Structure formats: structure tokens, C-alpha cells
Amino acid sequence: MRVTRTRRLKRQEEHASFVSWRFALLCAGILLCMVGLMLRIAYLQVINPDQLVREGDMRSLRVQEIPTSRGMISDRSGRPLAVSVPVNAVWADPKDLNDHGGITQDTRWKALSDALDIPLDQLAAKVNANPNSRFVYLARQVNPTIGEYIHKLKLPGINLRQESRRYYPSGQVTAHLIGFTNIDGKGIEGVEKSFDRWLTGRPGERTVRKDRFGRVIEDVSSVDGQAAHNLILSIDERLQALVYRELNNAVAFNKAESGTAVLVDINTGEVLAMANSPSYNPNNLAGTPSSAIRNRAITDIFEPGSTVKPMVVMTALQRHIVNVDSVLNTLPYYIKGHEIRDVGHYKELSLTGVLQKSSNVGVSRLALAMPASALVDTYSRFGIGKPTNLGLVGESRGLLPDRQRWSDLERATFAFGYGLMVTPLQLARVYATIGSFGIYRPLSITKVDPPVPGERIFPEQIVRTVVHMMESVALPGGGGVKAAVKGYRIAIKTGTAKKVGPDGKYIDKYIAYTAGVAPASNPRFALVVVINDPHAGKYYGGAVSAPVFGAIMGGVLRTMNIEPDALPVGDKNEFVINRKEGSGGRS
After folding, report:
1. Penicillin-binding protein dimerisation domain: from which residue to which, for each copy (predicted)?
2. pTM (two decimals)
């Protein structure tokens, strides 16, 4: 009995000891876990809280872009040429949308389809193309009124985003110069592209905290954006409209392939107007061919023909090959079997007569009396073969040959504008330099504040003399009489050149141009008019481009309120040989 009781007591003691040991072990484990948990909490909350904060922020913080509008482009007087108007982008969150049942035949979804003018099945296809994505555009540049209507539909997963669309008040009138932007507001053509960085601001950022329903509950931080710069051009919108209207009418009347005109302020080098026809509507590019978009004033090059003849006469006077009163033999002659002749038949002409009648024979004889390098140097000084550095993308630098050996035929034809290439803008720079009596000023497409001193590149008295001679071209007996402007003296030169085909050979297509300055007594404006490939029966510059020059220059002088300077009737300023010759309108 006693032995049995002893064993039972011993067994109870052992069991109690085992239970105590397990309990102690359990308590120790719990304690260790609590200590570890406290240490982990301390580590996460005190020592290294950034990770949890970051993960929490990823679930609740959102960065919202604060858009900035693209800078406005205006003319020299502040008239808007390109502005940004507020519009909306409609976008969807496919995951959120599908979590709420997706696009259905509900009347609200049909209302969205009607508002965007997109069939419901196409909307569904856009959303379901990537059902797990969080962003897809449904429509861009939506009218704010329609955007407000869509917002009131309160469709799940459908959101609005503020953006802007570029609007061009002058439309076709300034299209080639101003250019346009793409749907994201990046400059693609013209000034919009050339000055894209200047016109583009830096958007700001706003960091907010949202609850699980997407509502903003806290503004955490914000970063201010950088406002875009506005751009003031040298263009005068009134003159631009005038130039475009007259040019467009001339292209249609002459059934020409295209036309270009450039107007420059002689005293500052500012481009006051630059137009091309045909043009395009920058506010609606649908169906516009790429060929219609290029700015021909800076991209297209052509042989300047007779418009370089004043520079030949200047060079001859400077090198004392002739003097102001010289009379030249202008009978046709041959160079290695090639006849050099004029449209009219003249035995002899004064220097004024050479310009008035646009005598190829006269200027070629002058060129053959001097080294070829002399003409190359003069052409180069007036800017031929050099880019204008106007800042517009796509400008051609033209072509001015500088070869070591010249044949007599090359020297002769070089004097009446063959063997070199210019853009209309470069030719306008040449005549702006002539109009300033030999002072070269860089061209500018942005407004500049006078005075612009410039650099003298040719003796003033010689250039003044030749400008006076050029007045005869627009007087009775001259090839450019149709360019005359009532009440004003103008100094011009007309020209006609054959076009060069793709194979480098001349083809039976012509370019007619007229370049000049006015008023001749104190030139303020230089104008170049180019009519490309007219098909209405006439193709000479004096018949095709001269009337356009007169219409444009007359309008410019009157619009700018320039005092008339025409000499009284009977004043003997029109000293021309062969007065009996009628105006043939040819050159």
C-alpha cells in the first residue's frame, strides 16, 4: 500500500514538474515573440520608418500634373497669331471600369457614345484591348461643353483631363510661317517648331492624398511650374493679310503652280510678311498633302535671273570698268557657238538702259570685262549662298559656285542670274541691302527695337546711283511698268528663268519674279514676288509678277502711311535710251 502510494506521489511530482517546465517554456517563447515584435515595431516605427511610409503613400498618394498653357504667338502689334484654348481629354481606367460591370447598353453609356461620336462597340474595344491597364485615351481635344456633359454622366472609370488645343486666328494667311503643333502640343512646323522650347513651359506638380473612394483628403505638397514664354514676331498681320490676298489672286489668275512673297523692313531687317499660295488651314489639317505644308520662301531655290543685274552694274562701277554715263554695245554676239542676245533688239544702251531693258548682252559684256571672282565676291557680300539664320527650320542656303576655272560662257550667263540658286527670302535680303544703300542688316522674324546699325558692304554712292537707275524699270519703256505705284517712286528689277528639271536640265517651265524697294527716294520696304510656273499664256516677270508687286507695294505704302515721293510730271528723271520702245513687260 505504502509502496503504491509512494509511486503515485512520485508520478504526480514528475507530472507537475513537466507541466511547470512546459509552461515556463511557453511563457519564455511568448516573451521572446513579444520582445521580437516590439523590436520590429521599434525598427519600423523609429529606426527605419521610410519603407512603410513609402508603401502607404503608394496606396494613397497621387501626383497630379498642373498643366501650363503654351505661349501665345502675336504679331508686332500684339494681334494674336497662335493661341491655346482649353479643351478636355476623355480617358478611361479599364480595370476600374470592368470592376463596375464594364461598358453596357445603359442609356448613360449610349450618351457617352453620342457625345464623343464614337460607336459603343469601338469604345468597348478600346477599353478591353488591355483590361488590366489603368489608363487609355477615349478622345482628345474635346470641347469643354461636351466635357462638362460627360462629367455629369458620372460613369465609373471615365475621367477628364485638362489640356489645350492650338488655334490660329489668321488661318491660311499665316499658315506656312506660324506652322502648327501636334495633338500633344509639340511644334511640328514653322515658328511653332523653331521656337518650341521657348513657347513650352514646364508643368507643375501637386501631390495629394486620396481615400479609398478616390476623394482628395490632403494636399501634401506642390511644385510650381514654369510659365511658357510668349513670342512677338516681326510680322504685321495687316500687311501679311494684304500680301497673301494679292498673291493668292495672282496664282489663281495666272494658273500658276505656286507663288511666294516676302516683305522686309529695310531699316531693321524685320520680316513684315511672308506668304505662300496655295496655303492650308492649320486649324484643320484633314486631307492636307505634305507638299502644301512646306514654306517655299525658305525651302525652294531657283536661279535668280535678271534680279542680279543691279549687282553686276554696281561691281562694274566700283571697279571703274564703266562710269555712270557709259554707253554699251548691246548687239547680239556669240561665245563658242552660243548666242548672247536680248528679247528686244538694241544697238547700244546706257547703264540705265541696260537695267530698264534688262539687257543680257549689256551685263554679260560687263562681266567679261572683270574676273569671275569679282562677281562672286559681290554676290556673296549681298548674302547669296549664305543662310539668313532666321531661325526657321528647313531653310536652304542656296548655291553660289566658287570654282577656280570659269569659261567665258559661264561668266556671261552668271551675270544674268544663271549658275547660282537663291531662296525668295535670300533675294529679299539682297534687295533690303540694296534699299539701305549698301548696309547689310541680318533678317529677323521676331520684333526688334531700332536702330539696327548693320554693316556697310558696298559704297553708298554707287548703290544710290544704281537704285536711281532701277527706277527706270517701272517707268514707261521699262520691263516692269506694270509694277508702278501711283504717287510713289519705286526701284525694281523683274526677271524670268527657266526651271531646272529633276535630271538637272532646263525644262519648258518658267519662274517669274519681281524684286524691288520703295519709296525710292528713301527706301523703307523691300519686296520679292515669285510666281512659279504660270500657265495662263504669259510667263515673263514684267507681265506676271510685276502687277502683283505693284498691288502689294501700293497697299503697303498706303497702309503704313508713307508720304508719296513721286516727282512732278515733266521732271526729267526718266533718262532712257530707245524711248520709242513700248513696254513689252518682258524680263
Report:
1. 66-219
2. 0.84
